[in-house]
Amino acid sequence: MPKHYRPPGKKKEGNAAKYMTRTKAVKYLQVSLQDFRRLCVLKGVFPREPKKKFEGNHKTYYHVKDIMFLAHEPLLEKFREMRAHGHKVNKALAKKNKERAERLKAARPTYKLDRLVRERYPSFIDALRDLDDCLSMVHLFATLPAVEREKIEVSRIHNCRRLSHEWQAYISRTHSLRKVFIAVKGIYYQAEVQGQKITWLTPHALQQVLTDEVDFNVMLTFLEFYETLLAFVNFRLYHSINVKYPPILDPQLEALAEDLYALFRYFSASSRAQVLENQDLSPSQPENADLGSVGTEGDESDLRLAQLQLQLPTNTPGALMQLVEKAGVEDTDDDETRECKSLFKNLKFFLSREVQRESLLFIIPAFGGVVSWEGGGAPFKETDEGITHQIVDRPSQGHMFLSREYVQPQWVFDCVNARILLPTDIYAVGRVPPPHLSPFVDNEAEGYVPEYAEKIKRLQAAARKELMPMPGLDIEDIEDPQNILVAGVISRTEANEAAEEQRKISMLQNQYHDELNMEVQGVPYSASGVHRTMQIPVEDTESKKETLPDSELPVNEEIMMSNKKRKLYKAMKMGEDKKKNANKLLEKRKKMAEAKKSA
Amino acid sequence: MGKAAKSSRKGKKAWRANIPTDDIDEYIEKSTKDALTGGSLTSLPSDSLFYVDKSTDISVKKKIEKHREKVLHCESTLQKNPFVVSVPSSILNKSKKKRKVPKIVVESKDDSKDEKDNVSGMVDLWEAKDEDNVKPTKKPKPSIIPAVEIEAPGCSFNPSFEAHQDALASAVAEEMQKIYKNELGPQPVPLTVSSEVVDEESLYILPDHDTEDDAMDEENPENSDTAADRFSKTKRVTRVELNRRIRRRERQKVESEAKKIEKLSKEIDSLPDIIEEIAKDDEEKQKKHLRRAVAKEERRKLGPPRLGRNKFEPAPSQVLLSEEITGSLRKLKGCCTLTRDRFKSLEKRGLIVPGTKRKRK
């Protein structure tokens, strides 16, 4: 009996009309709860919280419109069909009619999610915007063990692995990786694709534990959708750089589990094929013409053979170099991409046996470097003369080549985040490297800058001004007079820049105040003219600035603001105060720690 | 049939008997057999040998269908008369036509796609730029929490000292909060209560002080009634008394009016104070509102609204202990419960309803 009696003919009103409990929704749609959950996940319909929970606080509510949206879904019919099919199979099995059961099992109704992807993401940009969760999930499942109990199939894990490698290969190829952060949880990556910042999390190379808090039915449903989505996104991205999408990989490399490298090779091969085809247009070469015709024919096996033949000559060690150079031909990149591309240019890396390969194989080519590793299918051996950096993660290195530098893997990550080549000696073998700072923290906004971040900043400024520190000197012996001089120059230039900026800002601010004042006084804008404000000398503005407390807006302006803005402003200030307090606490702690250390 | 004649035959008959008639006999035998069975099967085409049994396939016309065939009078009147030209509607028709045309196109496209490839992901889904068929439905985002939340800098595998201390402190605070909640919270209701066994006899006997109270209540109203009667007898009012009363009333009236005027003038004098007070009140209200709005925003950032029976519980943050920091990636004791983390993230964004721990079957 509801609280308020409603006569039977009367319509419902308010929240009771707008929302529906889950039980009611399931009854309305006439599906099992399991199917309902799956449908919700696939269609992107999620529970909501009504203002008034008319059937109690312990129930789950859905919007009525959402449920109607589900009711019109063709997938619903498909689910019913599948259920009926399951009944048929069961019946056949119960009647010991094995033959029929087998036949039925072979003809199980299937469904595709293509339409749903299109429906949920009407444009490609929408899909890119929502790719974070998708990528994290796919990368996670790529490392999971296949567990029968949880219905995690081997084929799906392989599919996830393939999709994640394809994505990484694209990012690496287009040099769109921006930030990397190794946390305890996993490795965070941030890339910029078509102006969208995409962040994803990959697990460490560890055996993942499946806890019983996790409902794998739900996870697998999400994964099902995400797999489809990522396949479409990859297809689109590959075609945007003129590569055929389902990539054909070298089976030998695939067998060695070097999918990523195989993909790089595939890229280089396809770009070479393009060049060949382009040449084919002007001078008629019989061989190339043949190749072209094969490509257009689309005969699968022939195409595959041709592709692999193209990849054959790339077995030579210089293949990756070629790849990198080819990629440099494109001139549509923005500044940041160019910067990223040239970070590890002309550097050759070698990964030792103990180093975790996956992430480094992805990152180093993404920043223009060439990389090899110890193991089958590697492009070049450890004894290669051209190697400039060897990445080592062990307490001591026995045999050392003098021609190369031995660094810990953290060096690569820190270089990538700082966008400069950091000095290698603090990352040398056996030393405890400097802290790995998060690139996702905006130090200026936070107001607290860690020590090492300051050092990196100085180095960046130095690199920008082409004032590289003297060879043989590193940042540690900053007490050296020469270094201090350099630092002084840098700091002075920095200070100059900062002052310039501040002056500009104060000027603009002043102008704004004056205009406001004039408005208050009722002076028409056009009459006063802009010239007067422009003519205000710099000294004047500075003196004014001193009188004004910089953190607070003048009172009359606060009054001028609309109510909403004023509230927002106040909320902002509350947040700022909080941050300031936190910073103070941090600094206090640091002082305490230092005092403790010295004591 | 093929038997030799037994009786003696002379002349022609004997001559005839010498002619072999086996082949003829055979033929006749065969033909008769064929005639009896209905012809040899080898020469016949297979079409005439087998036929598709359609006797059971023919759908029985049900009563309902028969009924359907009948056209009701009301329906017949509604049917379109070919001789009457319909008046074209100006707006409705246009919109309908426009809507219908792209739909048909889409369907045909879908069919062709299905035939072409059965593997999803091999088509450019966003290639076709026809935005008509896909309505961009603006859905409210279930939450403002990002899908991938980036951990604090202190959770790095090789954090700087201060950041690490910060992260560690927050993790410790979380744990301590849980402990304090357990300690300071209300005691759980005990499952069993220790007490003496109640006798069966005493179980049915109620304590009798209730009846006494009732008796007391009954007595009281009688007393009050008698008192009222006594006071209801009043003295007679004399003329003098009446006059006095009238005068007093008039005086009071005048006085109260004077007081009113005085009060009003006082209030007018204190108007700035009142305005100030109102402003103060308003300000306080606004502050309260602001505080609430900020708190609400913060709560939205922390977790989902209550969506079901269970409350969302965030996963503990992953921080290395001070002695676990080695600075080496190889020796890193990383988090191995990332599935749980992703699951919690789904819960946190309100995409799924937080549930209890599942029981293993």
UniProtKB/TrEMBL annotation, chain A:
Residues 339-429 form the BRCT domain. The keyword Plastid does not apply. GO terms for molecular function: ribonucleoprotein complex binding; RNA binding. Residues 278-287 have a biased composition (Polar residues). This is Pescadillo homolog. Required for maturation of ribosomal RNAs and formation of the large ribosomal subunit. PANTHER family: PESCADILLO - RELATED, PESCADILLO HOMOLOG. Residues 278-298, 572-599 are annotated as: Disordered. One of its GO terms (biological process) is maturation of LSU-rRNA from tricistronic rRNA transcript (SSU-rRNA, 5.8S rRNA, LSU-rRNA). It comes from the Eukaryota. It is found in: Nucleus, Nucleolus; Nucleus, Nucleoplasm. Keywords: Nucleus, Ribosome biogenesis, rRNA processing. SMART domains: BRCT. One of its GO terms (cellular component) is nucleoplasm. Its main location: nucleus. The lineage of its organism: Eukaryota, Viridiplantae, Streptophyta, Embryophyta, Tracheophyta. Belongs to the pescadillo family. InterPro entries: BRCT_dom, BRCT_dom_sf, PES.
Automatic annotation (TrEMBL), chain B:
Residues 106-118 have a biased composition (Basic and acidic residues). Residues 210-222 have a biased composition (Acidic residues). One of its GO terms (molecular function) is 5S rRNA binding. InterPro entries: Nop53/GLTSCR2. GO terms for biological process: ribosomal large subunit assembly; rRNA processing. Pfam families: Nop53. Keywords: Nucleus, Ribosome biogenesis. It is found in: Nucleus, Nucleolus; Nucleus, Nucleoplasm. Residues 96-118, 207-235, 282-317 are annotated as: Disordered. GO terms for cellular component: nucleolus; nucleoplasm. It comes from the Eukaryota. Its main location: nucleus. Belongs to the NOP53 family. This is Ribosome biogenesis protein NOP53.
